[in-house]
Design brief:
By secondary structure, the chain is mostly helical. The chain has one domain: Rhopdopsin 7-helix transmembrane proteins, CATH 1.20.1070. 83% of the residues lie in helices and 0% in strands.
Length: 240
């Protein structure tokens, strides 16, 4: 398990450092939701990964690491969803749909992520000589939360594929190859997100909590890296 923790954390660190380097060297505008959500998600990956690893390896106090790991989890999950949301307007012309996506992200945070965090911190803050009233609730919420994030990210990435397929029809006659390649990339992004989320859910449902906890930052770093590549290509296509 310790070897797996180290490997997953190394993958997360490598991908995140590369993402941060690309952000600060290639982004023209740094006062956008896209940039800041990408930055928050990247920092969250490092924070969650380092805190979870130190906690599981017992190299740091349990409760402070549980708190910082939870903060990192907020940043990398909600941040990653906001990365996708921030570029939806390039393929979707309906403000109403965009608002519903934002409502979904907000609802997921307050309805699922916040209760999971409260029960997780409460579980770790409860002294061993006192009754633990949080563990059962946490076991329930963590599964529901993971399913909610899988559904949310699948919905947003699926919208990219559908909306781009519809809105790109007028320019296909001019840039057919570029449009087709980008559509394939979006389908690939959708497949990557689904596949990695299924892997996370599999580790959760099979009871491998330690593996799942340290796998999360690695998974989200891969997803963020793929999103950066695909969304930058989308921006370039729209601008040219």
């Amino acid at each position: 398990v310790n070897v797996a923790i180290g490997c997953f954390f190394s993958v997360a660190c490598y991908n995140t450092i590369e993402i941060l380097f690309l952000m600060f060297t290639t982004f023209r505008h740094k006062n956008t939701l896209y940039f800041w959500s990408m930055l928050v998600a990247s920092i969250g990956i490092l924070l969650q990964g380092s805190s979870a690893s130190l906690r599981l390896l017992k190299l740091a106090p349990n409760l402070p690491m549980a708190i910082t790991a939870s903060l990192g989890w907020w940043m990398m999950t909600t941040g990653q969803s906001l990365v996708l949301y921030s570029r939806l307007h390039l393929v979707m012309s309906s403000p109403r749909k965009s608002r519903w996506i934002l409502v979904m992200i907000t609802t997921t945070f307050f309805a699922f992520q916040l209760p999971t965090t409260i029960t997780f911190i409460g579980m770790n803050a409860t002294p061993s000589n006192r009754p633990d009233i949080f563990t059962h609730a946490f076991d329930v919420f963590k599964i529901i939360q993971l399913a909610a994030f899988t559904l949310q990210e699948s919905t947003i990435s699926g919208l990219y594929v559908y909306e781009f397929n519809v809105t790109s029809k007028p320019i296909r006659m001019i840039r057919e190859n570029k449009v087709r390649n980008l559509l394939r990339q979006m389908i690939g992004l959708f497949a990557v997100i689904i596949g990695l989320d299924v892997a996370l859910m599999a580790t959760e449902y099979t009871g491998h909590f330690q593996i799942q906890t340290t796998l999360k930052p690695a998974v989200y770093s891969v997803k963020l890296k793929v999103e950066l590549f695909v969304l930058n290509n989308l921006v370039n296509l729209v601008r040219t």
